[in-house]
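A reminder from the course coordinator: this example appears on the midterm review sheet, so study it carefully.

Given structure:
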């Protein structure tokens, strides 16, 4: 049997067309061919980021840039907005990088309250805030505009935003929201294999980085900017994945960014409706639910492991049985990337079949 089709929330299914685009003949990364490839990604990335700034390409997971952003921007004290496995981890990473770090912590499944952020920042001393827009572990979509507005009301406070499972599914508006670093990995909503992160840095963020002597090299924002000016990267890039990125951005342009967002909203609503039909309760609160994936609470007595196993064995589809401390008590279904109403209906029919 072939590998199962992934409806788990990342990595997600990669199309055969994308793999074909990635299989182009290898090129050198310090020549004209690569410079043209790099340059070709910029208009599409800038559109989905909502920025006029250059969008950098980093051969790493998103976590590389998440840690790098702290090393470039943080000076002394970091506030981490925590509502799930990945946002909670950022607090630990900040401490391991040697910064004083505190949290606005809410229960997993809840969204961050902008006013709670205001109250904490008012205590003083914070120079950097970390924030995850779509918390993949819980399916919570936080208030990006509201949080951004609060953070930027405190002068000289940098805002670092992870959009790993929201980029290209909803508007980001990096410039309008005055985000200082916006980043994502490509293995979720952009439907590419893991290994590449994309990020952009505000002018204020670049100025902050220039004054930070301990920013390292591999994720040095100044090095990224210097190389981006000539359509290149500081270190050897994952050229094949960038070919895939070029293809995906072309597909987004053909579909239209607004149409892509509408498609994600429709396919996400299909999964929510399927869950409601079978009595599965949504884990994230109304008004704060991701459009890229759905997280359900596992009902008492429900054989989740058997459901997932039978779905894979009988239909070769794979969903996820929860993450971190809510593994087993929740399950997650992705609708992001290339999925359509037709492909999601195939999954729904298969899930109905194994629920009987």
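Designed residues:
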């Amino acid at each position: 049997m072939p590998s199962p089709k992934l409806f788990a929330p990342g990595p997600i299914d990669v199309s055969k067309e994308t793999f074909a685009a990635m299989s182009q003949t290898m090129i050198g990364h310090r020549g004209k061919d690569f410079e043209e490839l790099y340059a070709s990604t910029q208009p599409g990335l800038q559109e989905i980021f909502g920025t006029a700034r250059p969008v950098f390409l980093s051969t790493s997971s998103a976590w590389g840039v998440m840690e790098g952003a702290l090393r470039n921007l943080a000076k002394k004290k970091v506030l981490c907005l925590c509502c799930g496995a990945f946002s909670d981890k950022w607090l630990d990473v900040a401490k391991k990088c040697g910064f004083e770090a505190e949290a606005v912590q809410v229960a997993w499944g809840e969204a961050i309250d902008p006013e709670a952020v205001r109250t904490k920042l008012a205590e003083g001393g914070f120079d950097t805030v970390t924030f995850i827009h779509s918390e993949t572990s819980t399916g919570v979509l936080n208030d990006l505009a509201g949080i951004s507005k609060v953070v930027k009301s405190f002068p000289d406070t940098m805002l670092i935003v992870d959009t790993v499972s929201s980029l290209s599914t909803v508007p980001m508006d990096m410039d309008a929201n005055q985000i200082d670093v916006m980043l994502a990995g490509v293995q979720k909503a952009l439907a590419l294999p893991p290994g590449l992160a994309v990020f952009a840095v505000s002018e204020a963020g670049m100025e902050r980085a220039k004054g930070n002597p301990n920013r390292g090299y591999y994720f040095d924002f100044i090095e990224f900017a210097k190389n981006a000016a000539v359509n290149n990267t500081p270190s050897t890039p994952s050229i094949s994945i960038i070919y895939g990125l070029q293809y995906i951005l072309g597909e987004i342009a053909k579909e239209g960014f607004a149409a892509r967002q509408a498609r994600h909203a429709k396919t996400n609503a299909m999964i929510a409706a399927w869950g409601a039909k079978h009595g599965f309760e949504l884990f994230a609160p109304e008004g704060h639910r991701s459009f890229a994936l759905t997280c359900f609470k596992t009902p008492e007595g429900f054989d989740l492991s058997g459901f997932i196993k039978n779905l894979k064995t009988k239909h070769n589809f794979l969903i996820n049985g929860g993450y971190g401390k809510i593994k087993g008590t929740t399950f997650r279904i992705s609708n992001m990337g290339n999925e359509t109403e037709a492909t999601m209906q195939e999954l729904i029919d298969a899930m109905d079949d194994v629920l009987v």
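Residues 29 and 236 are 7 Å apart (CA to CA). The two ends are 24 Å apart (CA to CA).
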